[in-house]
Known about the structure:
Largest sheet: 5 strands, antiparallel
Shape: globular
Strand order of the largest sheet: 15-14-13-10-16
Helix content: 10-25%
Radius of gyration: 25 Å
Number of helices: 5
Mean pLDDT: 89
Number of strands: 25
Structural class: alpha+beta
Order of helices and strands: HEEEEEEEEEEEEEEEEEEEEEEEEEHHHH
Strand content: 25-35%
Amino acid sequence: MSKFIDVTADKWFYNDIEELMSIYVDGSTFYSGIPYNKFEDGKECVDYEIVNTKNGEHEFYIPKKITPTSTNHLIVYVDGVIVAVDEIKNQPDGTTYVKLTRGVANGSIVRFFYAGEPSYIVLCCADEAKVHSAMDVNSSVVGIMKKGDTAKYVDRPENGNWYKVKDFPYAGVEGFVQIGLTRQTAGGADWNGVTFPSAPLIIDAGYWYEYDPFNGITPEIVKWKGRPLQRVSSLSEITYDGLEYCIINNRLFANYSLNNEVLDVTVLEKNSMGIQKPKYQRLRLKSDKIVYVNRFFPEVLASKGELLISLNHLLKNVFARYTDVKFENKVLPYSRFTDVQELLSKNPSNPPWWWKIVCPLEQLKLPDGRWLIEGDERGRLNIDMPITRAELAALMDKFRIWAIEAFK
């Protein structure tokens, strides 16, 4: 089963994405989803769980109105096993009635999961993008988008290189903007109040949690479905969809994709007599508000930044598999590109999140002295701009030349 709900076996790109998703680089997958937690009105994500109290019960109510579709189902798990749904009805009080095809035993854990329908926005990547009244550059202009501005996505018409947008520059105003100057992406993540999924450690009375990996007694082990997670020292080191965890104040934290999932955990506990022993437990991680990464968004245009991140992952993977040399992520406080340097100068202590990935690539040169990555005529990288086929071909050819020289 694919990690992404919008990457299914009937899609032409299924095998390619699944293969890349099996490759881990620095603890996270080669490709990751786009973070989001903003949804279309009335189509929010639901991850609701109850303990059944009536033997044979097969009728339940979810405390939210949901609208599953043929491509985004309501999935019901009973004690971790998927159970077929017989009927779904929205109720006048805002709840949703769900009838299962079989009864559920008393004490069983019933989990209702609906991934929701993310909202989309159109992001302006050029210095300026005109919003026209029709799909014609000669039609009247109803608004101007500046770099970084967003408009609410309505549709991508089949005819022409356009997005239909609304609520820009004023609420209710609709128009068309060229794809070459903008790109569609997920509606973004609301980070206010977002917390990593977590659960308190279960420690025996008279003992306390002990982290001492060097005493040779019992190593700390955290696994999800048999796959080990990597311990990190702080929340900032946990990635969107990687396999990291950390323990802070006797609480275990992991990434957003593990929300409501059960981990097999073995930690070391110690008492005042100095006695140490392993403590095994199964912890279900939960968070009231997370960001979601379970969609790939295959129809969204990629930016140059996304391509460079993928190229960085490819380099690390090639170095790890075919050499005994580690690809060096050397991060500098300055950039060759004017638009990147402007961002670095504004906040030197807090560079863009992608800088540590892009910076090492910026420094690579071909045997003839050309840079692997080049800017436009004004010396800009334009990291948010959609990548053109010509740019992609040129970069891949230069990467081929660089790789041949590097791996001689």
